[in-house]
Design brief:
It comes from Streptomyces griseoviridis. This is Integral membrane protein. This protein is mainly α. The chain has a domain of 113 residues. 69% of the residues lie in helices and 2% in strands. Strands 1-2 form a two-stranded antiparallel sheet. Helix 2 packs parallel to helix 4, helix 7 runs antiparallel to helix 8 and helix 8 runs antiparallel to helix 9. The C terminus is likely disordered.
């Protein structure tokens, strides 16, 4: 384990990425715990205000992200400074993406249905960074054996081909599948052979004169959303908290 960690994480300079990912996930978890306690009126926590203005945690998150990003660029991939700035960046990114929905809608939708976007983005970001972190990194590793060169070259070629597939999958309106297909080959192949989402560029281009294909795409999308929307919502509620009832954000101004 120690040899694998050194060869694939430390030597190629991916230790800052590992620290940033750990800080990112931990920050999101702690932030959600605190906001849920505030929402329930429990614990010593409360909203941060300055002169009656509610300071959302995306504000310090942006500051930490900027400091960590520029610091990481200046310090390089190795050394104590790189590790520190990676942690700072991870903490800032966790705070920012926890309120991604607020930035997207320019409104306080933290505890509304629209606020689910924050949880989706955080989970997707952590998964993608984890996949990149667990993959082989041939650059920066010294004294590679012939077998290691072949393995890592195969991974690079696979990722390159998958990237082309990912573009096609993305044109089918399957954003999440396209992102994961860059790393996981099977995901890209499955997304490539399945029907496109209605209204996607692929559907508009290739289903325009194929009414049966359009009808099948609409029916499949309906069945897929009906089957998976419930479990997906329950997982999101478990991770980030259940949204408040009501259509608008005006009832959700307080954490």
């Amino acid at each position: 384990m120690g040899h694998w960690l050194y060869r694939n994480i430390v030597e190629p300079g991916k230790l800052p990425l590992l620290l940033a990912l750990a800080a990112f996930v931990l920050t999101f978890v702690v932030t959600r715990i605190i906001t849920r306690l505030i929402r329930a009126g429990r614990g010593p926590f409360g909203n941060v205000k300055a002169g009656g203005l509610h300071i959302h945690h995306v504000v310090p998150g942006i500051i930490l992200t900027v400091l960590g990003g520029f610091g990481a660029v200046a310090s390089g991939r190795h050394g104590f400074g790189a590790a520190v700035f990676a942690i700072v960046f991870g903490v800032g990114a966790g705070l920012v993406l926890d309120e991604f929905a607020l930035i997207l809608h320019l409104d306080d939708v933290y505890w509304t249905e629209q606020g689910r976007k924050s949880v989706e983005v955080v989970v997707l970001t952590a998964a993608l960074v984890g996949l990149v972190l667990s993959g082989f990194a041939p650059f920066g590793v010294n004294d590679l054996s012939q077998e290691e060169l072949q393995d890592r070259g195969g991974v690079i070629a696979t990722v390159a081909v998958n990237f082309v597939f990912a573009l096609a999958v993305l044109s089918k309106g399957k954003t999440k599948t396209a992102l994961f297909s860059v790393i996981v080959p099977l995901v890209g192949l499955i997304g490539l052979v399945r029907l496109a989402r209605p209204g996607s560029p692929w559907a508009r281009r290739f289903y325009r004169r194929r009414p049966r294909a359009r009808a099948r795409a609409v029916l499949r999308a309906y069945r897929h959303d009906r089957r998976w929307s419930g479990p997906s919502r329950r997982v999101q509620d478990w991770i980030g908290g259940k949204p408040d009832p009501g259509p608008g954000p005006e009832l959700n101004r307080s954490r």
